[in-house]
Amino acid sequence: MHFPKSPAVATDVLIFSVLEGKLCVLLIQIGSGPYKGKWALPGGLVEMKETLDEAALRILEEKAGVRGVYLEQLYTFGDVDRDVRGRSVSVAYFALVNGDHYNPRTTDYYAGIGWKDVRRLPAMAFDHKKVVEFGVKRLASKLAYSNIAYALLPREFTLSDLQSVYEVILGRTLDKRNFRKKIQEVKLVKETGSMRRTGANRPAKLYAFSQSRPTLVDVL
Amino acid sequence: MHFPKSPAVATDVLIFSVLEGKLCVLLIQIGSGPYKGKWALPGGLVEMKETLDEAALRILEEKAGVRGVYLEQLYTFGDVDRDVRGRSVSVAYFALVNGDHYNPRTTDYYAGIGWKDVRRLPAMAFDHKKVVEFGVKRLASKLAYSNIAYALLPREFTLSDLQSVYEVILGRTLDKRNFRKKIQEVKLVKETGSMRRTGANRPAKLYAFSQSRPTLVDVL
DNA sequence: CCTCTTAGTGTATTTATTACACTAACCTGT
DNA sequence: ACAGGTTAGTGTAATAAATACACTAAGAGG
């Protein structure tokens, strides 16, 4: 069977990381064409022989050099005018990485690549501003009822690190004692036995997530 | 700009209704081709000049004669082998209707059309079984924190009607007094002043939703 | 007027959430 | 060695939310 003319199918990937106390997303600056100078999500067309998930994984690796991270489908954007160059539909995904995973490919096709604070986005191409805002909301709500924070932290971390991730993404401060109580109660983490010394203060116990795959948990 | 070959873009719409105490979905029986005899969701290709939402609305009207109902994007399914006739990506939507809205178009292209209990699905074409199951889960979870039940009930209804919709979709019974307490507390509904008499028992007060557009409310 | 059926109502118990302030451990500088 | 600075770590009381539970009310029909 041969299908008639149809919009192009692309995927765009929101790669989130918490860096220096800010929720950041990896953006690429477009080097030519009508969107020259604007920033965009890493993305690309879906090939005939790959699933949507596979396309997103490929883009993640090609554009950000990232493998084995958390990835989930976000939403599909299909406004007629979302790309002035032609009709396309974009299946947006979001990925979570911690600083360690990041190893961006640099090519001269792009004018730039870098982490941008989601609260201070630069001028963006296509409908990508909307996509980022949508993704931030989804991320915040998933944080409350799943363990996906594991994907944003290194294998070992302190409870203060963990709390800070929650605070940055939710955009509000949390009570230290109540936070710790809840985290322990739902058995989100376990002690690793070692400590971290960071200077002129009391050393902190290090923890690891008890599960390193997505699980539903009532965290907050 | 001209895009290279890309999967076809379709939308499929899950049309839910609660009928005779069962959560049902409107399905069409395919009349020819490799999926002949199998049941499928109403769907079709997205046209070049319409957004995804518009395509879903068009299908809703063309296939089910339904207008002005609740509609929301569900998920996009894009496995390579989801349609044996060729590579396609399907943006699934779900719609909520009450019995009144239903006025299906009958065409001889289809071998049949009808409401099917989501707990007893017939043999389904494509990946549509997966799509329905995904949609049922989403619907159940949205019921708990939004007022979308309004779209499944007529303008006036009793609190028992409402509770029954919740019970059918959640798949468990709810305590009558606690349910009513919560519903009133969050001001989900208001009395209309009239009553419904249904035979040999006490008449029930009729209620209407205080909001007839999607709103976030902590119902349960 | 008795029986059947569905509608409608309140309270006590348990559980979860919130608010809140001090001590512990370590480093540094004197 | 000890004082000052900094982050880690801990418990309890008050409030709010969720749950469990059983009887009376209103109508129809015989």
UniProtKB/TrEMBL annotation, chains A, B:
Instruction: Give the Nudix hydrolase domain ranges.
Output: 4-138
Which CDD domains does the UniProt entry name for this protein?
NUDIX_NadM_like (cd18873)
**Which SUPFAM superfamilies is this protein grouped with?**
Nudix, Winged helix' DNA-binding domain
InterPro entries with a match to the protein in the record: NUDIX_hydrolase-like_dom_sf (IPR015797), NUDIX_hydrolase_dom (IPR000086), WH-like_DNA-bd_sf (IPR036388), WH_DNA-bd_sf (IPR036390), WHD_NrtR (IPR054105)
Q: What is this protein called?
A: Nudix hydrolase domain-containing protein
Q: Which domain of life is it from?
A: Bacteria
Alphabetical list of Pfam families matching this protein: NUDIX (PF00293), WHD_NrtR (PF21906)
